[in-house]
Amino acid sequence: MSDRNPRNRAPQRRPDPVRRLAYQVIRQVNGDDGYANLALNKALRDQRLGGRDAAFATELVHGTLRWQGTYDAFLARSVSRPLADLDPELLDLLRLGTHQLLRMRVDSYAAVSEMVTLTRSAVGQSRSGLVNAVLRKISQRSLDQWITAVAPHPDEDLPGYLAIAKSHPRWVIDAFANALASDSNELEALLDADNEPPRVTLVARPGLAEVDELVAAGATRTRWSQYGAVLQGGGDPGRIAAVATGRAGVQDEGSQLVATALATAPLDGNDTKWLDLCAGPGGKSALLAALVNERDGKLTAVEPLKHRAELVRSNLRAVPGEHQVLVGDGTKPTWPAGWYDRVLADVPCSGLGALRRRPEARWRRTPADIKELRPLQESLLESAITSVRPGGVVAYVTCSPHPHETHEVVDAVLASRGDAVLEDARELFPGVPSLGAGPDVQLWPHVHGTDAMYLALIRRT
Q: Which ranges carry the SAM-dependent MTase RsmB/NOP-type domain (predicted)?
């Protein structure tokens, strides 16, 4: 059959493959509750995209998801019906086009034309007219002009203004403001840091690799972690031999710092039995296992989900020793009370401290999630304290700065028992500034360049 119709019009253009890939990943995230980093990495591998095409696809996906709330506010002014009445597939196409028009150096004519072509391919010819009209309307204003037109004035409603200007849900902004207890300038700096693409940070696992090996492969040393290096210019960390063989891994500097703090906390007596109570996917487990090897010890890693336990085993594959991975519920220990010398309780949390690397999380989480996670967090901390011997230490860790997930959990658990005390953890972060009033520690993206990791150090008495 001919590609031309009876009137001999030119055959329809095919959509740009990079934009099509980005749209398909966004649909996996928004339509199927996928994770942006996993879905994108798989798509790039499957399509064998690299270099500039991979970078373009990454910005399309992460940028569109990161700024989704802001774009929805603009689109609500540009579409003649409520956004809730639009098909999700069509709304994601509009978001993807808006991102190119307002935050990427894409010619407006090209951006609209490419999105109309993609619309025809993805959802049909009948929707292309709406996409064309709406995106042309979006292109008539700059990002700042749209913010001025849509957002409330900051003097009248600062959280409402920031929700649109910085693309965070209002409840998250309120929680961050509560945790910072500081001026609005610091709050804005944190929101800006959340909107910056994260660096690829590597960890050289002690006894297996040296940071110098990562530096020789093109990385630079991290500011605070003695085991860390930043991969310059992004790229695939798997091309580095130490990472490919498991002697090094990808791990945020904040995660390295809290694991190292647990390992270096003063301890009298035996120091050979360590426990990672909530181990998946296993990055901290691998660092702790390498560190306990230096003391001829053994790590036990516990993870309730079978597939995540396999990820822990994969992370531990290069670390020598008889380290053990258990599939089980950390709130129901199968080991004797007081069995371990050091325990890490890196509890499930909202993940609000890692919004830089999980752009979809800010729209997926709700205040109800914070409330629902609280009993589990308290139960895991109770179990961790019971599992450590007298004189031993527990690190309670979350990748969230939300007070309901951090010090309020610690305060509630310690108030219910008389056999544990909170110790000052700040001295375990040598050279790292601005750790908070203590005795616990809060890291911040806008201050430390890390995820917003929280650590409380608890000693069993």
A: 176-461
pLDDT at position 457: 98
pTM for the whole structure: 0.92
Domain assignment present for residue 376? The answer is yes
Q: Cα torsion at 368, 369, 375, 378 (round to 10°)?
A: -130
Alpha carbon 95 to chain centroid, angstroms: 21
The percent of the chain in helix, strand and coil, each rounded to the nearest 5, is 50, 15, 35
Task: Encode 100-132 in three state secondary structure.
Answer: HHHHCCCCHHHHHHHHHHHHHHHHCHHHHHHHH
The answer to whether 159 is annotated as binding is no
Q: 282 labelled as ligand-binding?
A: yes
303 annotated as a binding-site residue: yes
- Chain-centre distance of CA 362, in angstroms? 10
Residue 280 annotated as binding site = yes
Q: What is the CATH number of the domain that holds 218?
A: 3.30.70
CB of 375 closer than 8 Å to CB of 331? no
Structural domain count of the chain: 4
Residue 448 neighbours by CB distance under 10 Å:
22
Question: Residue 367: which domain range?
Answer: 256-460
Beta bridge partners of 375: none
Question: Would you say 378 is a known binding-site residue?
Answer: no
**Is 80 within the bounds of a domain?**
yes
From the list 57, 79, 399, 456, the catalytic residue is 399
Classified as helix, coil or strand, 432 is coil
Write the CATH number for 304. 3.40.50.150
Residue 188 lies in a domain: yes
Q: Are residues 185 and 305 in the same domain?
A: no
pLDDT along the chain (461 residues), means of 10: 42 86 96 91 89 92 97 96 94 98 93 96 93 97 97 96 97 95 88 93 97 95 97 82 96 98 97 97 97 97 96 95 96 97 97 93 95 98 98 97 97 96 97 95 97 98 95
Give the three-class secondary structure for 81. Answer: coil
Annotated catalytic, 399? Answer: yes
160 is in an annotated binding site: no
Half-sphere exposure of 391 (CA within 13 A, CB side): 7
The pair of three-digit structure tokens given for residue 229, joined into one six-digit string: 């290096």
Tell me the one-letter amino acid at 376.
L
